[in-house]
Amino acid sequence: MRRRALSLTAWLVVLFAFTVLGPRASLQQRTGPAAAKGGVGDITGDYEIPDPNWPQWAHPYPKPGYIWGSQGGVFAESPNRIYLANRGELKLPDKVPNGFPGNWGFFNQMAATQPIANMVNCIVVVDGNGKLIEAWNQWDKLFEWGRGPHQVYISPYDPERHVWVVDDMRHVIYRFTHDGKQLVQTLGVLDEFGENDDLTRFRRPTMIDWLPDGTFFVADGYGNTRVVKFDKNGNIQVFDTDGKFLEQWPGIAPHSMLMSADEHVWAVDSLTDRIVKFDLQGHVEFSFGQFGTRPGYTWAPHQITADSDGNLYLSEVFGGRTQKYHPKPNADATHLVWGRSLMPMGNARTN
Questions:
Q1: Which of 83, 117, 273, 315 could form a disulfide with 75, with the two C-beta atoms 3.0–4.6 Å apart?
Q2: 3-state secondary structure of 219
Q3: Is residue 163 part of a domain?
Q4: What is the average pLDDT across 289-312?
Q5: Which phi-psi region, left, alpha or beta, contains residue 48 (left: φ > 0; alpha: ψ -120 to 50)?
Q6: What is the pLDDT of residues 38-49, one digit of tens each?
Q7: What is the model's pLDDT at position 68?
Q8: Domain interval for residue 79
Q9: Buried b (16+ CB within 10 A) or exposed e, 233-242
Q10: Which pTM value belongs to this model?
Q11: Burial class (CB in 10 A: 0-12, 13-18, 19+), 164
């Protein structure tokens, strides 16, 4: 019996096709000048230049002489509750140059891999103004000896709003209660990896998404070439035939993808540092972004999320920050990312 690798939505088809087959062409080659990297006027698209002092939690620094490092993930549960997956803190140089903007990318070093970070404040929650609400320091120990959290999610169909945190380097996925007080499930085997036919182990998993009945899918991942299907309890689904291939969308290397509320696929393209909007047939409808470390520019954007007000959030693994983009006053609504609604949460507070 073999496990079947299935697509959840168009974005998982894209991710699976890219992982198995590799990129065929750059985004610019596929779509022409309209999607070329950079360009005057499309650095932030229909969003304003982000405030470099968001979130407030990072300014001032976590403690004197340190700064947050690589930012693996971000998830907007609501406009006033945003989860940040931080890959630890890094020591600042003894002399910080004048005009230092407050993010590690300024030093032109790849904070995702060097230097070794101090794994503290790995999961924090901030409000819409960037003020710290919660710091889940009790779980920092889970990310020691690794690289820190990869991405963070909440299922739109879960009334308890469990928080899922992917750790690709240690090959596991954690599921926490909404308040972070309990670790209720670990998928995979810590520090052990398996091949594509392994029924208990991942090999650097990356992304998750859900169906309304609680079925969920894991893209596995950096090391394997499969999408794994689980039932609502986290049991692997095993079938006697392979999943049916639907289609391939070439020309993009997505670090993160999401299905927006208006049922379009938005992707972070690692080939061009651009944010790209697709229809469900794989046609590029809109894109914006450019490489850089100034506000609004990005260096290796890693996870994309949006809230119901149209605010966009991007975590950067090498830029060492998470940026919040507000829509411009006269923004074209079709050029904005809209977060999917979450199921109302029963018997608990929300922000």
A1: 83
A2: strand
A3: yes
A4: 94
A5: beta
A6: 444 489 999 999
A7: 87
A8: 2-335
A9: eeeeeeeeee
A10: 0.87
A11: buried
